[in-house]
Amino acid sequence: MEEDIRIYVEDDAGQRTELIGPTDMGLNLMELLKASGYDIMATCGGMALCATCHVEVLAGPALPEPGDDELDMLETLPVVHIGSRLSCQIRLTPRTDGLVVRLAPTGA
């Protein structure tokens, strides 16, 4: 059964853009962002090895805790926020409906 969810991307001015993503394809947030035209490098292709898909989770449902690989990569970043996550590690599921994120600045 297909169930679409809504993810919101907030820009620096506080404006939010709604993205609609399917939950029946096993996609992660990084893939949805790239497919929606956002400039996500995703150098490692979603393996939690590069941190070029860094986002800041601003609001929404509670996400599962980051795994050790994700935490290790986040530690390599020069700027990390309380809500910092790798978008490749956030699966699109009905539980992520309503998530609000901000893309990390390039190089951060």
From TrEMBL:
Residues 3-107 form the 2Fe-2S ferredoxin-type domain. This is Ferredoxin. SUPFAM superfamilies: 2Fe-2S ferredoxin-like. PANTHER family: FERREDOXIN-2, MITOCHONDRIAL, FERREDOXIN/ADRENODOXIN. The lineage of its organism: Bacteria, Pseudomonadati, Bacteroidota, Cytophagia, Cytophagales. The keyword Nucleus does not apply. Keywords: 2Fe-2S, Iron, Iron-sulfur, Metal-binding. Its cofactor is [2Fe-2S] cluster. Transmembrane segments: none annotated. It comes from the Bacteria. InterPro entries: 2Fe-2S_ferredoxin-like_sf, 2Fe-2S_ferredoxin-type, Adrenodoxin-like, Beta-grasp_dom_sf. It holds the Pfam family Fer2. CDD domains: fer2 (cd00207). Belongs to the adrenodoxin/putidaredoxin family.
